[in-house]
Write a structure and sequence with these properties.
Helix content is about 40%, strand content about 20%. By secondary structure, it is of the alpha/beta class.
């Protein structure tokens, strides 16, 4: 009987490799060997010419650490590790708790991330160490201050366990050599999470895995609670009451686009007393929207998911929607599907990666869609661009004038704020932290947005490739609120730290400096040089 048959039959079992069992295991070898409880070392055929490893193996045998060594194909070793992990993962207790120590450690890390409302968990195995970082309120833990440190072996075992025993992947092994992604099995996640996405890739000197946490968010939050200005909410209300047209949200990854769309769809459903078919295609589903029919794209690997995504988009037309939501416009095919839905009388909500409202439509032309098709204000009925900035803790925030007296803020920065029309006696910065905010000085995030209803003149500027004209028409003629104006209003109300704003959208006077299409040295001199000493 072969060793894999013996393991499958339960005659022998794998034991966890660590330095207490075998000393001096090189990091380069740990992913290519396994040890059984009868003292047999299983070695991948990829290590048969590794002189360093062969020397160590000879020493382990002579010292009696292992009884014998068997070389097997690398794919067979991976299958043994995968099948063994899967058997362990299926051996669960009645209260659905994980059955092995590595799964317990993975879920303990997730629980800690949930406790601080982290959006992402980063696992980095590099050289001889594993470090784990959280992203909280948009900030990733500094490299010098990870949440966890452990051995390189731990990192590989953790990534392998997460990918092979805790995800919906059924026919793919964890690979150290190629990028992979997957979704967590929902039955193993804490109740506060709706799901979690996993992405892994090799990096120079090691491996990297990121877990994107999908919380059971509050899709009934209002636009006001998200931080939109009253004038912007009026514009959004106008868009929601149009029976057809495409409303596009732009922003970088993690800017809150999906949260805002979930809020919009909840309000659309309420406006229509629920007597409406709101249909979504999402990859992945991030919020449960009461009253909507949400189609979650499934598939293993990028190619299969992309194929499934296109298939779901085509199916939307045949499912009698009144309102459609497409989670992301990725290519010309998805853009044209959105256009077809809008031209046949449907309201369409969707997102695109774009840094401001004047970039959204040009981004679609970069995907191969004709400007003449897009330059129709009855087709494109709304453009929204947004970023997120941390909100100050109301219990410990510090007046900026007090901070300037203490030397924490350069006094020239107060001049810059005054130059921007902001009364500094109403401005606050992040304090030292307190019990209420977990000693962070901030709590949660708020939106900085631009909301534009394009008209025929705006579209003419777009048709002519005149982004400057688009911007001047939107914010000077139509008088929509720019993102920088929105930011200055929040700074003036003491809601956000101006320094955090500048990290998010740049100098708070940037739109004022660029208003005449000229950036002069005098304007930059007046703009100052930031607030922190």
């Amino acid at each position: 009987m072969s060793i894999e048959d013996k393991i499958a039959a339960g005659e022998v079992q794998l034991v966890q490799l660590n330095d207490n069992l075998i000393e001096d295991i090189p990091d380069s070898c740990k992913a290519f060997i396994a040890l059984t409880n009868d003292g047999t070392l299983l070695v991948s055929d990829q290590k048969t010419r590794d002189i360093e490893f062969l020397s160590l193996r000879t020493r382990w045998i002579s010292n009696g650490v292992i009884k014998k060594s068997i070389t097997i194909e690398d794919s067979t070793l991976n299958k043994i590790l995968s099948d063994t992990t899967t058997v362990l993962s299926s051996n669960r207790t009645k209260d659905n708790q994980p059955a092995n120590d590595m799964q317990k450690q993975a879920l303990a890390i997730i629980d800690e991330a949930i406790a601080v409302n982290a959006s992402d968990i980063h696992i980095e195995k590099k050289n001889e160490q594993t470090r784990i970082y959280f992203r909280v309120n948009g900030d990733l833990d500094p490299e010098s201050k990870p949440r966890y440190r452990n051995s390189a072996e731990f990192g590989i075992e953790l990534m392998r366990c997460i990918y092979q025993a805790m995800t919906d992947i059924s026919n793919e092994q964890f690979s150290l050599e190629t990028p992979q992604d997957a979704s967590f099995r929902r039955d193993i996640l804490p109740d506060s999470l709706f799901g979690a996405r996993i992405a892994h890739a090799p990096i120079f000197g090691g491996h990297y895995m990121v877990l994107r946490m999908l919380y059971r968010g509050n899709s009934t939050a209002t636009f006001e609670e998200l931080g939109f200005d009253k004038s912007q909410i009026k514009a959004l209300d106008y868009m929601m009451r149009n029976p057809y047209g495409i409303i596009l949200f732009g922003g970088i990854t993690g800017s809150g686009k999906t949260t805002s769309i979930a809020c919009a769809l909840a309000e659309v459903i309420e406006i229509n007393d629920g007597a409406i078919n709101v249909l979504t295609t999402e990859d992945p589903v991030e919020f449960i929207i009461q009253g909507a029919r949400q189609m979650a794209v499934t598939g293993e690997g990028h190619e299969e998911r992309d194929k499934a995504y296109k298939s779901y988009l085509k199916a939307m037309m045949r499912m009698d929607p009144d309102v459609a939501m497409i989670s992301e416009l990725r290519d010309s095919a998805s853009v044209m599907q959105a256009i077809q839905l809008a031209l046949t009388g449907h309201q369409v909500w969707t997102t695109v990666h774009a840094i401001d409202t004047t970039i959204i439509l040009p981004r679609l032309t970069m995907m191969g869609v004709s400007t003449d098709i897009l330059a129709d204000n009855h087709l494109i009925t709304g453009l929204i661009s947004q970023s997120l900035v941390k909100k100050l803790c109301p219990h410990c925030k510090q007046p900026i004038e007090e901070a300037a007296r203490e030397g924490k803020v350069d006094r020239d920065y107060l001049y810059e704020l005054n130059h921007a029309g902001i009364e500094t006696d109403k401005v606050f910065i992040r304090g030292n932290g307190c019990h209420e905010c977990g000693n962070l000085g901030h709590y949660g995030r708020t939106v900085l947005a631009e909301v534009v209803i394009p008209d025929a003149t705006y579209m003419n500027h777009f048709r002519n490739g005149d982004r400057v004209g688009m911007r001047h028409h939107a914010f000077d003629t139509q008088r929509w609120m720019s993102r920088h104006q929105h930011a200055r209003a929040k700074i003036g109300r003491g809601e956000v730290d101006p320094r955090d704003v500048e990290k998010t959208i740049g100098p708070i006077t940037r739109d004022m400096i660029e208003a005449d299409n000229v950036i002069s040295i005098d304007e930059l001199r007046n703009a100052g040089h930031g607030g922190a000493r």
